[in-house]
Description:
Elements: H1 8-15, H2 19-25, H3 34-47, H4 53-60, E1 65-70, H5 77-91, E2 95-100, H6 111-119, E3 124-128, H7 134-142, E4 147-150, E5 160-164, H8 166-179, E6 185-189, H9 195-210, E7 217-220, H10 225-236, E8 244-247, H11 250-263, E9 273-278, E10 291-294, H12 297-312, E11 321-324, E12 328-329
Amino acid sequence: MRTEKVTSLDVAKRAGVSQSAVSRVFTPGASASPATAEKVRAAAAELGYRPNVLARAMVSGESRIIGLVVAYLENFFYPQALEKLSNALQEQGYHVLVFLAQPTSTAEGLDDVISEILDYQVDGIIAASVALSSELSDRCAEAGVPIVLFNRTDGALNVSSVASDNFAGGRKAGEFLLAGGHTRIGYIAGWEGASTQQKREAGLMAALNAAGMPLHSRGVGNFHTDQAQAAAREMFDRPDRPDAVFVGNDHMAFAVMDVLRGELGLDVPGDVSVVAFDDVPPAAWAAYGLTTLRQRANVMVRETVDILLAKINHIQTAPRAVEIESPLIIRTSARIPEGWT
């Protein structure tokens, strides 16, 4: 049988205080004497009362909730980042509502997701691994809700962003493979609409162009396991296969390595070197030993939270684009050039 919901008035009667006193006790930053707070919390515990956060938000204009839009949860990087973001925001007194978007969502496809987030009266939004249109960013601005892009950049939008320096990372991967004596370097791209993908490939091409080396071959994995496997089969199941491949992220690289060794019988790195981007936990497993560019998630999360809270508190208004250096983590999946450790 469903019982009636306990209200703040019930708590006030039990504690012998006013209803406004109950509200002050459960409102962060509001003043209430220690004696009053003790009586109210004891009465609330006896009655099983929990304050209605959304109702309070409608009155105060502050929900203490951050909306987080995320995709690619099958990629180890994003569940890790989501956990770190949630913990960092909780330390600052905020809660996180997670909204899932399709990995290749167009800005139009995100409209319903953004609408739902705004319905929850969130104080801010973090958009991870999704694209935004100027219309959506303007809509958030009109609602007074700041937004920060996480692991995405878009110079055309008037929003802040935090990402790895993907161009420098891609160039570093290319220089590493060139230093290893490779002359037939291939690339397997992620989703072509992602800024991370575009900049990683541009960095690789900058390194190859500087060395006067053409890109040997190119495939598209769209950040999906099955598509990365198909791209690897097409690229390597032929006589003039690459002797090295830079893969757009670790998630695809694991699938590529499984095809190279398990299906095509190639030795990694004897026949082909593999380098990727992210440094998720399985990259260090002996089964892969993946040489990869590390995304420094702790630094990215700290920068993202600092920027968002500064905007919520009106400390910072101008957009910032933060790019964080990614170190190359050398393991066993690629030939190690002399002098590189």
